[in-house]
Amino acid sequence: MNSVAAAPKNPAGRVLFASLIGTTIEFFDFYIYATAAVLVFPKLFFPASDPASSTLQSLATFALAFFARPVGSALFGHFGDRVGRKATLVAALLTMGISTVVIGVLPTYAQIGVAAPLLLALCRFGQGLGLGGEWGGAVLLATENAPPGKRAWYGMFPQFGAPIGFLLSSGVFLLLTELMDDAQFFAWGWRVPFLASAVLVLVGLWVRLRIEETPAFRRVLANEARVKVPMLAVLARHPRMLLIGTFAAVATFVLFYLMTVFALSWGTSSLGYTREQFLLLQMLAVLCFAITIPLSAVYADRRGRRAAMIWSTVAIIVFGLCFAPLFASGSAIGVLLFLALGLAAMGLTYGPLGTILSDLFPTEVRYTGASLAFNFAGIIGASLAPYAATWLAKNYGLQYVGYYLSAAAVLTLLALLSIPKSAGDEPALPVGERA
Q1: Is residue 330 packed enough to be buried (19+ CB in 10 Å), middle (13-18) or exposed (0-12)?
Q2: 305 part of a folded domain
Q3: How many domains does the chain have?
Q4: Per-residue pLDDT reduced to its tens digit, 150-178
Q5: Which end of the chain has a smaller Cβ tally under 10 Å, C or N?
Q6: Global pTM value
Q7: What angle do CA 16, 18, 21 make, to 5 degrees?
Q8: Is residue 432 included in any domain, yes or no?
């Protein structure tokens, strides 16, 4: 234990920036694919006589990454719990970054035929693999370096990368739309965000290579408490917490991808907004997302992570019942209000999510456990959300998309209520001091 105490400490600013920059890059990469899956890929990689059919095929490749994420959780979680948080975070960032840059140089369907969507799907799988390992490590980097009473605040920083990444990705697409016509955009302009990701990845690597291992993992090493196969340990010893953690995050995923991917697709196809108009509305609304993340973190540190998540989930249920009247209001102000309220609720639930999921598992399997819960929730809540919402809206109307969201939030509420009151609010304890 003396060696643990004597080990160099990570400066708070460096830790928070390293956790923030990584998730910002990861979510930027992820969102540029989501935007292109609606605006670009249906025309260039999935040509068909029916535009709706092409969009659904493109959204299917979007879903593929969510099935890759648990694989990434198991793979990177294994090394994160065995080798360390730092090295694993670097590997996850590289996996995501390389996959994204390669998308920017892929030939289209017109150039190589059916091989084009297959290569696109392979790169999308790589994106999901990287993000499956990135999120959990970034959260642990923050929370395992947090001082007492500030775990939710520290855990908020990697979550804050989501709205920043979204603003950057939407801003790039909006700028390209303003600077070039459609012919230029579809000929080569859409590739720029994917290629530009390489610069961001280099910045992220430089920052992460300068941090030290977390104190919690150093205690695992000092106590020789590492497990041989962390995923098997999670499944055998903590299946209940894995199940609870998964469903505790489901509503967060459903809400976010309805407010971004589905809303963009429906707004530019069925509601008559141009690409530029709707991207601008989303960018304005994402500011509400960014504002409510730190607000929820402050509340969570003062009143408890579990309580913060419960109240935000109740807000999502109510929002789902107002989904159709707001989105189909017929005015830009109404749509902006719809996006702002939905993304504000997203910030309230997203801020404490990383911290509460990491608190469900002991240190020696925390990377794997928190990552698996988060990414299993992605499969259930996000992978098919844009596809299912599009099908519901076309066949039954927008109100059923809202019911779908509210139903998902009810499942999340039940999961949160099943967490013991102390479990979501206990501090990070040394190995062997947790049940």
Answers
A1: exposed
A2: yes
A3: 1
A4: 888 888 888 888 888 888 887 888 888 78
A5: C
A6: 0.80
A7: 105
A8: no
Angle between helix axes 275-303 and 305-321 (nearest 10 degrees) is 150
The CATH number given to whatever domain includes residue 181 is: 1.20.1250.20
Helices and strands in the chain, H and E counts: 23, 0
Q: Sign of dihedral through CA atoms 73, 79, 82, 86?
A: negative
What is the spatial distance between Cα 373 and Cα 308, in angstroms, rounded to a whole number? 19
How many CB atoms neighbour CB 337 within 10 A? 16
- 322 lies in some domain: yes
Give the pLDDT band of residue 404 (cuts 50, 70, 90): very high
- Single-letter amino acid, residue 252: T
- The DSSP element (H or E) to which 336 belongs, if any, is helix 332-350
Packing angle of the helix pair 398-417, 250-257 (nearest 10 deg): 160
In a domain, 433, yes or no: no
116, pLDDT greater than 80? yes
Q: In what helix (H) or strand (E) does residue 290 lie, and over which residues does it extend?
A: helix 275-303
3-state secondary structure of 73: helix
Residue 72 sits in which domain range? 2-425
Which amino acid would we find at residue 408? Answer: A
Segment (H or E) for 384: none
User: Which of the two residues, 392 and 430, has the higher pLDDT score?
Assistant: 392
Whole-angstrom distance, CA of residue 30 vs CA of residue 96: 9
